[in-house]
Amino acid sequence: MKKFAFLLALAAACLFAQTAAANLVANGSFEDGNFNGWTVSPEIREGVNWVYHSDTAPPGTEWAAQSGLYAAYHYGSTWSTFSQDLTTTEGQYYNLQFWLWTGGGTPNEFKVTWGGTTVFDQTNLPASTIYDNYNYTLLASAGTTTLTFGFRHDSAYFHLDSVSVDPVPVPPTMLLLGCGLFSLLAWRRVRPR
Ligand SMILES: [Ca+2]
Q: Per residue in 157-180, pLDDT tens?
């Protein structure tokens, strides 16, 4: 009976372990009020690449943050990047999510890369009326994955906010199968001979 309880606890622990997940992106909502955690190229400078405090902007308007009080901004024809090295697990899928406001006007270009692979690259995006949500499921192929946002917006602003990268949970059926096999192996080891 004790062995049965042990195996039951083992299976429960196996299932519970799956629920732990955290955003890998440091300062993804820019609520530090700056670019802490990010590498910005070619420079951090107000009016080019900067973090803006939006408490005076009415919610839902262009100069409001998507979440919290701060968002990151790019303006101008200088190609600029915000990037961050993430600690990932090779073979693990991740959900990348972020929110972008496009000021409109041409030319503009917005590009996203994941470990050097282009996820999104579009020129002359139309003006936003609300922050647009972008969502991708991506596979990590190394222990470190660089996430990079690239911008050019000659006559208006890009606003980036609420960047998150979370491990994609294993599908429940696969998890149950894995836990079942693990418990079965444990059972074979502890059963009386
Ligand atoms: Ca924010």
A: 999 999 999 999 876 555 556 555
